[in-house]
Each structure stands twice: as structure tokens, then as C-alpha cells.
Write a structure and sequence with these properties.
The chain is an alpha/beta fold. The strands form two sheets. The protein has a six-stranded mixed β-sheet, sandwiched between helices. The protein has a four-stranded antiparallel β-sheet with strand order 2-1-4-5, covered by helices on one side. The protein is built from seven helices and ten strands. The two termini are 20 Å apart. β4 and β5 (68-69) form a beta hairpin.
């Protein structure tokens, strides 16, 4: 299995390096792995996730994502890399003025896919997340769990190499949470998508083998 992420002596910080969040981290994530990242609030979980899609550049060390060095990656290459990454946010980040189908195909619209491809993929993905009858509804007409399923469908729109999920079930009830975990498990199992999830709590019922990193005092440690 090829490495999707490789960090060596990685440090991440804000305020031009004054406030170090992650220090001297070293880890590797391979293709098709499911990884949970835990740690107390403010420990740097979301910061680490941001570095994986180039929203925060490393201040020291090396971070390779998809074979590209994130410390020196040109803008054009970063945009290309992002087309292979699906992102799921805790607060959904749906466009309220757009219907569900249009929200789902946003990555395809950005990439310039034809309307026919967009329509076909929207139907397929909404069926996959069990929202086929909701294509013409708007986000604010949906429950939180339904909105997050739209978020998962959007993240899967381009069959990504990697999915990054930031507290994807943080605002959801138990039923909606279990649906989201099932969808992420299936993406990992069926599509060989690498899935990295920042969460306060790993689900008690989880059928896939997974790896568990925790962040403590700026260090990233694997729990075996």
C-alpha cells in the first residue's frame, strides 16, 4: 500500500511560528486506512487536518500528501490535489440557497464536469446516502443528520483518494451518527478511500480495523 500521508518532524503553528500547535510529529498513513484522531479541545486536531489539505502550511519539517510536499507545493498543484480530497465539516457548510442535488455536485461543478455527469452522479450519491427523494429540497428543510448525509455525498462526489472529516457526528443524535459511520466505513472498504476522522469519541460499534492517533502537548502519538 502506498503512503497517502507522511510526516517527518512536522511542526504546525499560528502567528508566524510564535504559537506552536503540533511539534516534531512523525507518522505515516497508507492508502485505504481508516484513522481516528483524538485529543482534548484545543489540542490541534483540526489544525492537523487543515494541513492535510493545504489550509495551513508546515512551519518546520516535512509533510507529504499524495506524494506532494506541502511546505513548498505550488498553488496549481494544491488545487489539483484538493480535487482528490473530500472534506466533511461538523457544521455541514452547505449552501442554503442551493437545493440538495446542487450542493452534492459542487466539486463536479468546480472541476467543470458536464451537466449530464453532474445529474447522474447526484442521483447515484443521493441514493447511496438514502436521500433520493430529497434532491429538490433545500438544506434548511432537512434535519442535522440529513444535512450531514448531504455533506458525505458531496465529499464522495469525485471518488476521492482521501476523506477528511472534522467532528462529522459532533452535532448528531445516535441514529444519524450511526448512519454517518456506516457511510464512511463503506467508502473506506468499497472504494479503498483513506479516511481520517477528527473526533472527541470513537464509536463503540465500529466493524473496520482502524488506527488511532491522539494529540497531546503538541505531539502526535499512535495508540495501539
Amino acid at each position: 500500500m502506498a503512503n497517502v500521508i507522511h510526516a517527518e518532524n512536522l511542526s504546525l503553528s499560528y502567528d508566524q511560528g510564535k504559537k506552536k500547535i503540533i511539534q516534531n510529529a512523525k507518522f505515516t498513513v497508507k492508502r485505504g486506512e481508516f484513522v481516528f484522531i483524538t485529543g482534548r479541545s484545543g489540542s490541534g486536531k483540526s489544525t492537523l487536518l487543515k494541513s492535510f489539505y493545504g489550509n495551513l502550511k508546515p512551519t518546520e519539517g516535512s509533510l507529504m500528501v499524495g506524494g506532494l510536499e506541502m511546505t513548498t507545493i505550488p498553488r496549481r498543484k494544491l488545487q489539483e490535489l484538493r480535487t482528490h480530497i473530500g472534506i466533511i465539516f461538523q457544521d455541514y457548510k452547505l449552501i442554503n440557497e442551493w437545493n440538495v442535488a446542487k450542493n452534492v455536485v459542487l466539486p463536479l461543478m468546480i472541476a467543470g464536469f458536464s451537466l449530464d455527469v453532474q445529474k447522474t452522479q447526484a442521483q447515484r450519491l443521493l441514493k447511496h446516502v438514502k436521500l433520493s427523494n430529497y434532491a429538490n429540497r433545500f438544506p434548511l428543510e432537512l434535519s442535522g443528520g440529513e444535512q450531514q448525509r448531504v455533506g458525505v455525498a458531496r465529499a464522495l462526489a469525485k471518488n476521492p483518494l482521501m476523506i477528511l472529516a472534522d467532528e462529522p457526528t459532533g452535532n448528531l443524535d445516535d441514529y444519524s451518527s450511526s448512519v454517518i459511520w456506516d457511510l464512511l466505513e463503506n467508502a473506506c472498504l468499497q472504494l479503498e478511500t483513506t479516511v481520517l476522522v477528527v473526533t472527541h469519541k470513537i464509536p463503540t460499534v465500529f466493524s473496520l480495523p482502524y488506527r488511532h492517533f491522539t494529540i497531546e502537548d503538541g505531539g502526535v502519538y499512535e495508540i495501539h
